[in-house]
Amino acid sequence: MTDLRRSGNPLWIAYEYVAMIVGLSALAIICLGWLPFAMLLYPLVSRKVGQPWGRFMISGGFRVYLRILSWFCACRFDLSELDQLRDRGPLILAANHPSLLDAVMIVSRLPNAVCVMKASLMDNILFGAAARLARYIRNNAPLEMILSAREELQDGAQLVIFPEGTRTENFPVDRCSPSTALIAGRTAIPIQTLLIEFSTPYLGKAWPLLRRPHLPLHCRIRLGRQFAPPGDIASLTRELEAYFRSELAGIYPSKAVATA
Prior knowledge:
By secondary structure, the protein is of the alpha/beta class. Helices cover 45% and strands 15% of the residues.
């Protein structure tokens, strides 16, 4: 995706700051609106009831949020290829991780997605209660993470995981951990790769939260290659990393992208 020429017009720069404030505020308001209900429901309702409701509300809330970004913040999202996965049953969805918006975009189109999340986000005031109700998975205990992922996949969920473990620092992709291949090996579920493209790496590792975006922002997710469950974990991990690197080299050509 070609980076767009950015205007030096002061009015446009002011609009980019306003769009940033609107975007961050909208996400906070949506999360805070669901927070008290998620906190109350988690201890009161069974997993069988709370889990689907939790995922449905997160997916719906993220859809609303992306519409707000589209209507008011000059963001353009092409996520239509994700709709092909909605009724495909359990899959391991492995994606590159250029931005904080990655999981938001994926989950907005897949209502039975379950995310592998950093423990710090699971304990965050904005996201924690909703993530716990939806039975998202902590990534801080590898064996527990793999067993939880296996349970969710056996129940028909689609597991969202970022093989890099955190947002990309050295574009086009950082070194991948073996977790994705381990889960595929333990569950015999295939890995469907997702290729996430941004016109600029807004909210990436090197993009401070309060740095204005360069608008319009174009975001796209396309379906990549599907990998069969591995016989050799290390070999598949290397193959996944090489595949992401090859597919994304023309999109994120160098480290310079991180500070664009």
